[in-house]
From TrEMBL, chain A:
<protein>
    <submittedName>
        <fullName>Peptide ABC transporter substrate-binding protein</fullName>
    </submittedName>
</protein>
<dbReference type="InterPro" id="IPR030678">
    <property type="entry name" value="Peptide/Ni-bd"/>
</dbReference>
<feature type="signal peptide">
    <location>
        <begin position="1"/>
        <end position="22"/>
    </location>
</feature>
<dbReference type="GO" id="GO:0015833">
    <property type="term" value="P:peptide transport"/>
</dbReference>
<feature type="domain" description="Solute-binding protein family 5">
    <location>
        <begin position="96"/>
        <end position="480"/>
    </location>
</feature>
<dbReference type="Pfam" id="PF00496">
    <property type="entry name" value="SBP_bac_5"/>
</dbReference>
<dbReference type="GO" id="GO:1904680">
    <property type="term" value="F:peptide transmembrane transporter activity"/>
</dbReference>
<dbReference type="InterPro" id="IPR039424">
    <property type="entry name" value="SBP_5"/>
</dbReference>
<keyword id="KW-0653">Protein transport</keyword>
TrEMBL record, chain B:
<dbReference type="Pfam" id="PF00528">
    <property type="entry name" value="BPD_transp_1"/>
</dbReference>
<feature type="transmembrane region" description="Helical">
    <location>
        <begin position="169"/>
        <end position="188"/>
    </location>
</feature>
<keyword id="KW-0472">Membrane</keyword>
<dbReference type="GO" id="GO:0005886">
    <property type="term" value="C:plasma membrane"/>
</dbReference>
<keyword id="KW-1003">Cell membrane</keyword>
<keyword id="KW-0813">Transport</keyword>
<keyword id="KW-0812">Transmembrane</keyword>
<protein>
    <submittedName>
        <fullName>ABC transporter permease</fullName>
    </submittedName>
</protein>
<dbReference type="InterPro" id="IPR045621">
    <property type="entry name" value="BPD_transp_1_N"/>
</dbReference>
Amino acid sequence: MKKSRWTLVLSLVLVLSVFLSACGGGSNNGGNNGGGEGDGDSASEQVMNLYATAEIPSMDTTQATDATSFNAMNQVFEGLYRLDENNEPTLGVAAEEPKEEEKDGETVYTFTIRDDAKWSDGSAVTAEDFIYAWHKALNPETISPYASMFGTAGIKNGNAIITEGDPLYGKVEELGAKAVDEKTLEVTVDTKVPYFKSLLTFATFYPQPKAFAEEKGKDFALEADTMLYNGPFVFSEWNHGEGWNYKKNPEYWDAEVVNLEEITVKIVKDTATSVNLYDTGKVDRATLDADFVDQFKGGEDFSTILEPTMFFLRLNQGKNEALANKDIRKALYLAYDREGLVNVLLNNGSVAAKYFVPKDFVKGPNGDDFREFAKDGFFADQGEAEAKEAWEAGLKALGTDSVEFEFLTTDTELSSTIAEYAKEQFESKLDGLKITINKQPWKQFLDLEDSGDFDISTGGWGPDYPDPMTFLYMFETDGAYNRMGYSSEKYDQLVSDAKKETDLEKRWDMMQQAEKVLMEEDIAIVPTYQRGLAIIQKPYIKNYYVHTFGADASYKWVKIEGK
Amino acid sequence: MGRYIGGRVVSMIITFLIIASLTFFLMKLLPGTPFNNQEKLTDTQIVQLNEKYGLNDPVAVQYFNYMKNLFVGDLGVSFQQDGREVSTIIGERIGASAYLGFQSIVLGTIIGLFLGIIAALRHNSFLDYGTMVIAVLGISIPNFVIAGLMQYWLGVKWGLLPVAYWDGFAYTIMPTIAIASIVVATIARFMRTEMLEVLGQDYITTAKAKGLSSTAVVIRHTIRNASIPIITIMGPLVVALMTGTLVIEQIFVIPGLGEKFVNSIMTNDFPIIMGTTLFYSLLFIVVILLVDVMYGIIDPRIRLAGGKD
């Protein structure tokens, strides 16, 4: 007995010593190498080190669909406008505000392109470069997943050209945009939308260097040296699996306001790793998940950003007859404790939402945030008691005392936690309710949701353009994203009227009424939270502007100060 | 020997074609589209995009097109990384994986064999128990835990090694240790068991009886015979580790192939799924052949068809 205990102790010592010696032996080399690199960091260097959580899938402005690509494009390309610090469109390649001319119910904008707008090889950015890129986005052969943006912007025939069966289908030259001369671009709009200029900051509306792109053919924009840049930075390196580096673009027309000489980006997918890299000074900014928030909260590095991204539950009234009952939907709406979700589970600056159009997203014609309307949300002062009451009434109308719902969600750790939380909320407060969680991989989730094969599903939506309509049009009766059998004549009418209305005040009012119908009269969905982002950023990074739509951020104005 | 290898090559090609076909059809059963922003695409848009990528054709047509291209060595282009060649993508990622895998295997095998041999020769001693504790720890502690602990202590707290990235030898140390821990554990346990078995064989007794020194007995008879099963497990281990390990690559930000394997399936990047699977299968098939050939060299009892004795 005594002998075997000694054996155990000795074995452990042995194990430890092997581990320690292995680590110690290696670390000497590492320490030296690490030190050698550190010497290069001088105090005033205008270098920012960042990471991205995904590869760049495409640098072809007509083909990209994802946040990483759009963000990179915002740094190296530029459209007629770009977003500024306050998310307002500011002049980009356009030399001045366009001339506006009304004729036959259409508006013609005449844009003049800056004389000093150049591609990184020194050649001029021309009106033809815009037309080339726009036609490419609409052409059925090369169609862009964001081709519908032309219609959204109200550009003439934008929708018809991509609608199969339309006489104009595929006829890209019918688009309401033409190059009058090298520096003059004329854009004809048949529906005037208030967010027209903001949309022009979006990658789909960027120009592409026509001659260069045609010469490169299939290889265009696949590598750092097979594209040209007209933005504040250029790619100095693009190692696909590993990351990419930016360098200041000397040909950029506004190069004198650009401070940063270099930006490095590595692809880091693991949150713990990115925090460790931040702690050792290898990256200057990192996004935190709930596990890390408490460690940094209260520090000067820490801040949260409220994003205009909404999360909600779709209630499939098309499939489940219990969910077709308004009282049942009301009970679900009220039984859900959103505070517990945002404060404990998410813990990242997300806010509880009893509304659908996010706050701090868009301002109306009078300058007020959309969310000044029904400021605290709908049914703000009701809670568990009213939920139980509505539940009883609902069950009575259905003539039953128990209901079962299938709760469809995705298989990530976060969505699983949120689904468990929802199940617990609903089942503990609503007697006779049984929730079955159905976790699916993302693609399978989308298929099931699209085919209406669920009772309740978790939805999320971020804006494609800075206007409440990017949220509200989702739930039109035939809307492609409705997916839950919701149909209201009143809602459809308000949304379609608002789309046509040119009086901005009236339009704004219609959209607010539409939201009210969706949320208060029909209780069609259960909004849960508006997403926040907890970030840490080194104090020497100044003027890092975060955007609410399109690209995540602009590096054009960033400078390093006091490092 | 030549005829044996010739026969094996034919069956390898058949195996490869079966794998290619099976993967192709199984892959087509995956739900969803390969498009990034699928949640924002309308049904009409999906049809249009499918048309553009040739995904509206009947599966049989797609299959024959794929196989036709495969015969001329064309693996197609990635859907996710718009338009980039699959072979380019595999090419730029295999380097880091292979380097790291190779380094881990060499390190792991040397330590593992050493520990296994010592443990067997000093059976039921402290050394034996110590080795087995290491082996059990190595197998049972997931390597992402080891990786995370090393990254925090060696990288952040003590600042001895770079936390992550792929930029020279110092950057390979922590990931190598993390991966090698599995190899050490596996090899040490195997080697110990095999050594113990061989040491009990009659021919060892004979060798000792005819007066061979114990060093000669161990080296010439014991280790050589005990390593045959090790070669069997080494084959698949080499392929698995040299083609990348997802978790370690993610923690240490290594631009390897492991991440592509998994991610292509999550995102329905069909050409990448095919490319990586076929690449993996090909390596596997070749390594298995090599292992079989090596048996004959190491173990005189095994002689392949066509051999002289």
